[in-house]
Write a structure and sequence with these properties.
mainly alpha, disordered C terminus
Length: about 110
């Protein structure tokens, strides 16, 4: 079964970008309309990342560590996405994906 990680990837990037923009706004001019837009955007993206990671847990072989990583604001979504991609590549035995992620190219991690 193929799992699409695209919605999680979009939400993780949205979460990080909105957090960076919120902090930049806070450190510089602190425009209230911008804060009013970015705050809910970041919050919704954060919740989507956490819920999507937990929901993909059974399908994409997410460990408890992956699920806990998604809870970290800002970068947690991208780290969880990386862990999910790595786990999915290893479980399906996709040699090219595992090599691209720094693995051995074998599903069990052992060279023959």
């Amino acid at each position: 079964m193929t799992v699409s990680l695209r919605p999680l990837r979009i939400a993780a990037h949205t979460e990080l970008v909105s957090l960076i923009l919120m902090l930049a706004n806070l450190a510089t001019v602190h425009l209230k309309p911008l804060s009013s837009l970015l705050g809910p955007t970041h919050g919704c993206a954060y919740l989507f990342v956490v819920l999507a990671t937990w929901r993909l847990g059974s399908v994409a072989h997410a460990t408890t560590v992956t699920k806990a990583t998604a809870v970290v604001p800002g970068i947690g979504g991208l780290l969880a996405l990386r862990m999910l991609r790595h786990a999915t590549a290893r479980s399906t035995g996709d040699k090219d994906s595992v090599r691209a992620l720094g693995g051995t190219g074998h599903a069990n991690g052992v060279r023959s």
